[in-house]
TrEMBL record, chain A:
Domain ABC transporter: 11-241
Family, as annotated: Belongs to the ABC transporter superfamily. Drug exporter-1 (DrugE1) (TC 3.A.1.105) family.
A biological process term (GO) from this entry: daunorubicin transport
GO cellular component, one term: plasma membrane
Primary location group: membrane
Protein's UniProt name: Wenxma_12, whole genome shotgun sequence
PANTHER family, alphabetized: ABC TRANSPORTER ATP-BINDING PROTEIN, DOXORUBICIN RESISTANCE ATP-BINDING PROTEIN DRRA
A molecular function GO annotation: ATP binding
UniProt entry keywords in alphabetical sequence: ATP-binding, Cell membrane, Membrane, Nodulation, Nucleotide-binding, Translocase, Transport
Gene3D superfamilies associated with the record: P-loop containing nucleotide triphosphate hydrolases
UniProtKB/TrEMBL annotation, chain B:
GO terms for MF: ABC-type transporter activity
Segments passing through the bilayer: 39-62, 68-87, 107-140, 152-175, 182-201, 239-261
Gene Ontology CC terms: ATP-binding cassette (ABC) transporter complex
Entry protein name: Transport permease protein
UniProtKB keywords: Cell membrane, Membrane, Transmembrane, Transmembrane helix, Transport
PANTHER family: NODULATION PROTEIN J
Similarity-based family: Belongs to the ABC-2 integral membrane protein family.
Domain spans labelled ABC transmembrane type-2: 37-264
Cell location: Cell inner membrane; Membrane
Topology versus the membrane: Multi-pass membrane protein
Length: 324, 265
């Protein structure tokens, strides 16, 4: 990726707001996405990711705030914004009855390609996206990964200045996900600014140069993945218990030892807690063992993005689902 | 992948609204190719109506099946076109639920183009269904006394009716959340309105209050004009009356459609 100097950003948003009735789905978000970068919006279900992207792609009118995309004002000149962007929504937006090739030709014709050029463009994209063999099959019969690739291809008929990808790999198997990641990197390499949303910390970590963490319609943190990790604290002790029933007891003990409440991951009986130094972590572990609580695994290190995320959003116990 | 196609920036000149509409029309034609079942739906209902009414009720209603067919056929054309227009509303609703409309809306195209495309599809459907019904009528003994010019004029009126009513169902398609709801809602309104017309039965035979309703029903006006055009007895007044409702619907509902489309909800 080239180091483009931070001149005017590809996307600049100030105080964007979108309300649905009483609910502020997006509640005053500022965003500066530099040109040519991959920028990730990370957040749990219902955080407002889709709403934010739909506003930036001119599909929703903001209730407050302002934004420019590649210099075009969102509300004053939406048609210019549409000419500069492409959107791959959270759910495939394809005509299921048509074949893969016909879907691409349809869009190419809408962009103004001649019949012949539209066909050529469709063929080239199908080849690039590993879909040549399925070109004449109806999209109905595509697998999730194929749909996703076709959906992204459909956004690249005309190379956009900014590409919005709403959860590009949700529901894909690891191989299909790797494929999509490779495509995204290649696209960014060719100079396209990419704003993607994801619920996967790994995805944001892998792809994006900068990450904004969003929850309840607000941006709660932003930075490179390293900055985010530093913001939460450098040293983390992670302990997995052999006996999950003693999780509470262990959490109390660690809290007493290290002066911070551990975050917990109930599925694999893991506790994660900030530790000032290796010596402190060591002492805490010793205390656990002395109390007869056997760790089956432990590690000390920089926090994973997952841990950062839980620390910022209030832990996995504070999920959003219940309030929806 | 050394030189991926997506990296190539080719940006053709933006096409005009008409070209956009034609592209959407092409899509409608492709749908016929891939989903031929929709043609079956489209044509079977009117064929069944024609056969059923002609042979089961015809004798009782008009004295002979032949006389009844002569009375009924223009009306079934009107009914078919109005019923068929519902399918566009369903198609629109499907596109919205599948997210396809979002993609169209995020393109820099003429905002009415997707609707124009649906209407192109409608026109094709109306011509196909109308042609088949007329064909069956001719086989069964229907005779349009006004000949070919009368038939052509009748089909133009038919398309005008389909165009006007098409907007009703586009609006329904934009307002309702699921395609099946579009269907059930539209038909539960359409059935009484279409049946309480002079399509199947002469209004003179009805109770007074119903006769008054049937005579005031614009669908009756359309049917009367269709009969007139096909038999060569139509007056200008009848044709104007027949066009009133479709014209009013199109004029009122076109801006409503646009407003709903841009509503951004
Ligand atoms: N059209 C709408 N009408 C009413 N409420 C809506 C609408 N769209 C979204 N919401 C609400 O706004 C909030 C944010 O939704 P949004 O779809 O933006 O979240 P998200 O971060 O994309 O979630 P997910 O990860 O599940 O896709 C949710 O509480 C949702 O229920
Ligand atoms: Mg979403």
């Amino acid at each position: 990726m080239s180091d483009i100097p931070p001149t005017d950003p590809a996307i600049r948003a100030r105080g964007l707001i979108k309300r649905f009735g009483d609910l502020a789905a997006v509640d005053g978000i500022d965003l500066d996405v530099p040109r040519g970068e991959i920028f990730a919006i990370l957040g749990p279900n219902g955080a407002g990711k889709t709403t934010l992207i739909r506003m930036l792609a001119t599909l929703l009118t903001p209730d407050g705030g302002e934004a420019t995309v590649l210099g075009h004002d969102l509300t004053a000149d939406p048609q210019a914004v549409r000419g500069a962007i492409a959107l791959t929504g959270q759910f495939a937006s394809l005509d299921e009855d048509l074949t893969g090739r016909e879907n691409l030709i349809l869009l190419a014709r809408l962009w103004g390609f001649s019949r012949r050029d539209a066909r050529a463009r469709a063929e080239a994209l199908l080849a690039d996206f590993d879909l040549a063999d399925a070109a004449t099959r109806q999209v109905k019969a595509y697998s999730g990964g194929m749909r996703r690739r076709l959906d992204i291809a459909a956004s690249l008929i005309v190379t956009p200045g900014v590409l919005f990808l709403d959860e590009p790999t949700t529901g894909l198997d690891p191989t299909a996900r790797q494929k999509v990641w490779r495509l995204i990197r290649q696209l960014a390499g060719s100079g396209v600014t990419i704003l993607l949303t994801t619920q996967y910390l790994e995805e944001a970590d892998q792809l994006a140069r900068r990450i904004a963490v969003v929850d309840h319609g607000r941006k709660i943190a932003e930075g490179t993945s390293r900055e985010l990790k530093a913001q939460v604290g450098e040293g983390f002790l992670s302990v997995t218990l052999a006996d999950a029933s003693r999780l509470d007891e262990a959490a109390d003990l660690l809290a007493a030892q290290l002066g911070a409440r551990p975050g917990r991951n109930a599925e694999d009986s893991r506790l994660t807690v900030r530790a000032g130094s290796a010596a402190e972590a060591n002492a805490a572990l010793a205390a656990l063992i002395a109390a007869g609580i056997e760790p089956s695994d432990f590690s000390m290190g920089a926090p994973s993005l997952e841990e950062v995320f839980f620390a910022l959003t209030g832990g996995p116990g504070a999920g959003r689902e219940a309030t929806e | 992948m050394t030189d991926p196609a997506f990296a190539r920036t080719t940006r053709p000149a933006p096409p005009g609204p008409f070209a956009n509409a034609l592209t959407f029309g092409w899509r409608a034609v492709l749908k016929f190719k891939h989903v031929p079942e929709q043609l079956f739906d489209l044509v079977m209902t009117p064929i069944m109506f024609t056969l059923l009414f002609t042979f089961v009720f015809g004798g009782a209603l008009a004295g002979s099946t032949g006389d009844y067919l002569q009375y009924f056929l223009p009306g079934i054309l009107v009914q078919t076109v109005i019923f068929n227009a519902v399918y566009s509303g369903m198609g629109l609703c499907t596109d919205i639920t599948k997210g396809l409309f979002d993609r169209f809306r995020s393109l820099p195209i003429w905002s009415l183009a997707p609707f124009a495309g649906l209407i192109v599809g409608d026109v094709l459907r109306h011509l196909i269904a109308g042609g088949i019904i007329l064909g069956i009528g001719l086989i069964l003994g229907y005779r349009p006394e006004a000949g070919v010019p009368g038939v052509l004029a009748a089909f133009v009126l038919l398309l005008a009716i389909g165009f006007g009513f098409g907007w009703v169902f586009l609006v329904v398609g934009l307002l309702v959340r699921t395609p099946t709801t579009v269907l059930t809602l539209s038909f539960s309104v359409l059935f009484p309105v279409v049946f309480a017309s002079n399509i199947m039965v002469q209004p003179e035979t009805m109770p007074g209050w119903l006769e008054a309703f049937v005579r005031a029903n614009p669908i009756s006006w359309m049917t009367t004009a269709m009969r007139g055009l096909l038999s060569g007895t139509a007056t200008a007044g009848e044709v104007v009356a027949a066009l009133a409702a479709p014209a009013a619907l199109a004029l009122v509902l076109m801006p409503v459609t646009l407003r709903l489309y841009r509503r951004n909800a």
